[in-house]
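Handoff note, outgoing to incoming analyst
You'll be picking up this chain. Sequence as last confirmed:
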Amino acid sequence: MKDSDSYIMSILNSRHLNGWPFLYWTIGINAIAVLAYIPTQDLSKPTGILEMIQMTVRITVPFLYMAFVASALYQLWPNFFSRWLLKNRRYVGLGFAASMAWQLLFILMLWVGYWDYYMQEVYNFSSIAFEAPGYLLIFAMSITSFIQVRKKMSKKVWRALHWVCIYFLWFAITLTYYYELADGRDVQIIDYVYFIAGVTVYIVRLSAYLSQRIAQRANQ
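Most recent structure output, in case you need it:
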């Protein structure tokens, strides 16, 4: 094994990057990033709150994509990183949920303080159609990620719930970036990065599924 690989493995095996400590670090770092960004925006104006909403989404999306692709990545390329990601998928998902709480906070600030602006400049049916059920699904996934709750559910129901939730959230976020690019206004490089990443993780997941099906048929 190369020295560089051993070094990376030692980092990934650190207790700070596994389990609950990883989640606590994730919540803390995201909180610091959000709080540090707030002074750069004028929250007395709706545009400042919108910028905070966009910022919180950008720091959240990677966690969703990592949770979405974890098992498929390990199936196709079993190595120390994909093994670490699969092992910590639960905590990555909870990190995503905790980070989304910031977005919800700023959305509520926009609704309460600038409802007219929201309805005239921001509102569209597709955003409401995805936002409302999206937060409910995040809550459902978060609650059922705890062992005490999971034990009270059948394995089939639990898997179905998480499958629906993760695909809905992946689709909603990736579609949002597609619309951003299609609209063409105020497009940034990060919008391309996240849209391409969203498509890529789906391709990886689809490839893993097809690979598994081919292997099953070959063994029949």
